[in-house]
Fold this sequence. Notes:
The protein is mainly α. The chain is 72% helix and 0% strand.
Amino acid sequence: MNDVLDAALDVLARAGYAAMTFDAVAARAGVSKTTVYRRWPTKPDLVRAALLRLVDVFPKARDTGTLRGDLIELARVRLLDDSRERERAIGLMRANLGDLDDQELRALGRLVTERAHQPIVAAVERGVARGELPPGTDPALVLEPIFATLQFRVFVMNEEPDLRSAEQLVDLVLAGARAGAAVRAGAADAR
C-alpha cells in the first residue's frame, strides 16, 4: 500500500489537492481505483495517510546532547540530506498554495505539522530540562522561527539549503530564547 501512498504524494505534488483524483492515484500506483477506495474511502483519508507516511519516513535526527546541536541536526536531516524528499515537499507546497483556503487541506496541514514538529518539540523540552533555556519556554516560539524561515527559503524562494545559514538562524533564535524571549506569556510571572 506504500506504492499507493507514494503515488498520492506524487499526484498531490503535481496536480494539487483540488485537482487530485482517485483515478490519477490508481493509475500512478498501477492498481485499480477500487483498491484505493477500499482502503481510503475519501480523498481526505488518502491524503492524510500519504502525508503522515511522508512525515514518518523523515530521516531521524539523533540526540546530540545540546539543544543547539539537536536543532542543527534536525535542520540538516530535514532540509540538507534528503534531496528527493525535499523536492517532493517543494512540489507539495507549490502545488497546494492556491488551495490553502480549503478547510480539509488546512486541517490536514495542521495534523502533519504537529506530527513533523514532535521531534523538534522534544529537543526543546530536553533543552529546558538541561537548563539550556528558561523554564516555561514555549517550544513553538523556538522551532517556528527556525524551521518556518528555512522552509520559506528552500520551498518558496528556491534557495539551496546550507548548513551555515541553518546554524546562524539557530544561534539567533537561541540567543533570544536564552534571554527569556520565548517564555510563555504568564509563565514568567509564575516564577
